[in-house]
Amino acid sequence: MLFLWALVFALVLQEQDPLAAADPVTMAPGGLETGTWCNEHMLHERLDIIEEKVIKTVEHLESEVKSLLNIISETTVNIPTVPGTPLIDIFDDTS
After folding, report:
1. Of 11, 17, 32, 80, which is most buried with the most CB atoms under 10 A?
2. What's this model's pTM, rounded to 2 decimal places?
3. Which pLDDT does position 75 carry in this prediction?
4. CA distance 70 to 76
């Protein structure tokens, strides 16, 4: 979960203008009273878009990891072993 928040934070920073953070006093045209709802609405829309991007990225990465694990499994099964050599399990967790 922490990874997802870090990814969302990175995507938000990537979407913003680097100089916008340096000037926090600048307000949207129309003043604070009329723009608050609109700003919140736009923020939620952007967060929804970022959430969709994160979900798609995570799904893509999960499929890539599964594919790589399948390739590794198939490769280790098909490796001819010399009689008398000990078998090594590459997925064995020693910790």
Report:
1. 11
2. 0.44
3. 80
4. 10
